[in-house]
TrEMBL record:
This is Serine/threonine-protein phosphatase. It catalyses: O-phospho-L-threonyl-[protein] + H2O = L-threonyl-[protein] + phosphate; O-phospho-L-seryl-[protein] + H2O = L-seryl-[protein] + phosphate. The keyword Chloroplast does not apply. Its EC number is 3.1.3.16. PANTHER family: SERINE/THREONINE-PROTEIN PHOSPHATASE PP2A-RELATED (PTHR45619). One of its GO terms (cellular component) is mitochondrial outer membrane.
Amino acid sequence: MTVPFRIPTTDLDYCLEQLLEHKPPKILPSDTIQQLCHTLKSQLLAVPNIMPLQSPITVVGDIHGQYHDLLEIFQIGGSPPNTNYLFLGDYVDRGYYSVETISLLIVLKLRYPERIFLIRGNHESRTITTNYGFYSEVLSKYNGSIEVWSYITDLFDYLPLGATIDGKIFATHGGLSPSCQQLDQIRTVDRLKEVPHDGIMADLVWSDPDPEIMDFKLSPRGAGYLFGYDVMQKFCHDNDLVQLIRAHQLCNEGYVSYWQGKCLTVWSAPNYCYRCGNKASVLEILSSNYLSKESDSNGLKGKVNKQGVLPGQYFNVFEASPENNEDTSSGKSVNGINSIDNNTGERDIFQSFFQEKPNRQYIDYFL
């Protein structure tokens, strides 16, 4: 039987308090996760496959359960609701804190629905999470129950597949598809299902750019495609775009710019898998003071800066958090269920948490 849920703001603030003000963070009870997921699914039903967003906005790449590095992102980029965020997927697996990471993002999306935007990555999948960590983590943290895994993976089916920013930038998790030449084709996809093995939906979450080719080529990942310069140029021209922004690939320096800024990869999980030693970044898009008609045959040559981004854009690069370094050597993957006390305070716990903290500041085909 379907139970109608309503979640008061004070309850969402209390969930944020449990996740932010305790070390280790207190994981939310199963029935709370169920309630949060049910409410967010209802809201996401009204969200199109491609969300029309506006700058200023900060774009975040893969997080992969690195909860403390997610907190670091909010420290550098600014805390909601003061900063708009677009997350490009891959919230779970690999890291020790997938439960806490996705729980925080769900609560933030419900608390600040016009400030936090989430799209789907290839790891937002029942099949992938069964094999790469999230399923096992839920079993460990919820006393052998898979209910929380079921609630959250069901929610993944409702996540949008991409976003446009100022009508000129297309953002998705992976890349382009030989089955898709127009954004309108993505808008008509039935996304309310597990990610299929092939087709437009699969390619959006699995594909990668390759500067050595011009057209499409089968991906070494076993799903999706590699796409080259000609494909990128044609897609942008046909859809009146200036740029593709995506995540999905580990970058040693935290980001990569292809084809004079025509395609950007943003990677937001520093020291990935607690062993790669890579930097991470978020992409801050402050404004859109460029037009696609100003592009020349080389893309946007002459307009990109030394980071390979367009005017009004900036990669904010950061290192792994101190907690990431601790987890690298000791591993802290099991927190267990924590009891919660009654608290109905009105203050914005998320913002106050970060106001008290001081400021700090090779591509691989990982699955």
